[in-house]
Amino acid sequence: MNQISLCVSTYNRVDDLKRLLSSALGQEPAIPIIVYDDASSDGTSEVVREQFPAVELITGQENVGLIAARNICIRAASTPFVLILDDDAYFTSASTARQTVADFSSPAIAAVAVPFTENGALMQGDQSGDTVQLARSFIGAAHALRRDAVLACGGLRESYRFYCEESDLSIRLLASGLVVRHGTSDPVEHCPNPDRHPLRRRQLRWRSELRFKWCHTPTLFVVPVLVGHAGLLLVRSGQFGGLRESFRLCYSSCRDVFMSRFERKGVDIRTYLLWRRLAKLPRLTLDATDHVLAFRRAPQQRQVQGRGISLKR
């Protein structure tokens, strides 16, 4: 029985997609492959049908965006795990998918930050192999998910449109007692497409980070956190197109947050503190935090287990 499927959403990158699919067909053992063509205009669907007939192709009639496209792929999969790669990434080892399945070594692991290299640098992952090292989140270019856990918490939040959907999913999983780990597989290669626009991406990231902080920061901290985020924008306004453009970005982003105010479900303070700790070194391990995670998975046991839970390194 297949344990993991490759899910790829693509838009007008047919050459990149061909490279990825060619490498994916070399995985041992073979894995199911699902491609969502997000209404491309470069003949992507025709190429996939003609050159990769074994691939399950879903052709969108209108462009829905990356996050919604990934949700469609996750729902279409029938395996317990899904491996998600950007269409401008590709496999360099035939063992990556099999090794990624092995990284789900505990039912508490809901996501794996799959190792990948970009411009010669390893971007995420753990090659030590001694412990299960935890991550706060993962980079969307290469990651794997426990399908039922992701669907149970509502999937990726599509209102982000771009950036922070990974962190949003990760903190919701953490609140339910599930974690992200650093992967140990052979890395994939990510070749960022040259059509990126750095200024626009910085603006999108700031906007998404504001939404994320609004949605998940505990009530006790939400005002200073949001004020600090806005202040950082003004201090670094030169990186966002100047002071005038920064004010415009702040206004439009705050308006979006107000429109999405019903999405707010601030996490409890313990989850928030654990979330912040997961970003620091030394990395937390699954063994050191399993009792904390079990506490979140089984709130009805709180009276039995008592108070005084602490984190160990």
Can you describe this structure?
Its EC number is 2.4.-.-. Residues 5-111 form the Glycosyltransferase 2-like domain. It holds the Pfam family Glycos_transf_2. This is Glycosyltransferase. GO terms for molecular function: glycosyltransferase activity. The protein has 313 residues and is an alpha/beta fold. It has two domains: 4-190, Spore Coat Polysaccharide Biosynthesis Protein SpsA, Chain A (Alpha-Beta Complex), CATH 3.90.550; 198-263, no CATH class. The protein contains twelve helices and twelve strands. The protein has helices spanning 14-24, 44-51, 66-76, 96-103, 147-152, 165-175, 198-216, 219-235, 243-259, 269-277, 286-297, 302-305, and strands spanning 4-10, 33-37, 56-59, 81-85, 89-90, 109-113, 116-118, 121-124, 134-135, 142-146, 179-182, 188-190. The strands form two sheets. It has an eight-stranded mixed beta sheet, with helices on both faces. A hairpin with a 2-residue loop joins strand 7 and strand 8 (121-124). Helix 7 packs antiparallel against helix 8 and helix 7 (198-216) packs parallel to helix 9. The model is unreliable at 300-313 (pLDDT under 50).
Structural class of the helix and strand makeup?
alpha/beta
- In the CATH hierarchy, the third-tier topology of the largest domain is known as Spore Coat Polysaccharide Biosynthesis Protein SpsA, Chain A
State the fourth-level CATH superfamily of the largest domain.
Spore Coat Polysaccharide Biosynthesis Protein SpsA, Chain A
The amount of beta strand, in percent, is: 15-25%
Overall pLDDT, averaged? Answer: 91
Second CATH tier, the architecture of the largest domain: Alpha-Beta Complex
String of helices and strands: EHEHEHEEHEEEEEHHEEHHHHHH
Number of helical runs? 12
Oligomer category? single chain
Number of beta-strand segments:
12
Helix fraction?
A: 40-55%
If you compute it from the alpha carbons, what radius of gyration comes out, rounded to the nearest whole angstrom? 20 Å
**What low-confidence regions span 5 or more consecutive residues with pLDDT below 50?**
300-313
Shape: globular
Termini gap: 37 Å
Tell me the strand order in the biggest sheet: 3-2-1-4-10-6-11-9
Q: What top-tier CATH class of the largest domain fits best?
A: Alpha Beta
How many structurally independent domains?
2
| Major sheet size, sense and barrel closure | 8 strands, mixed
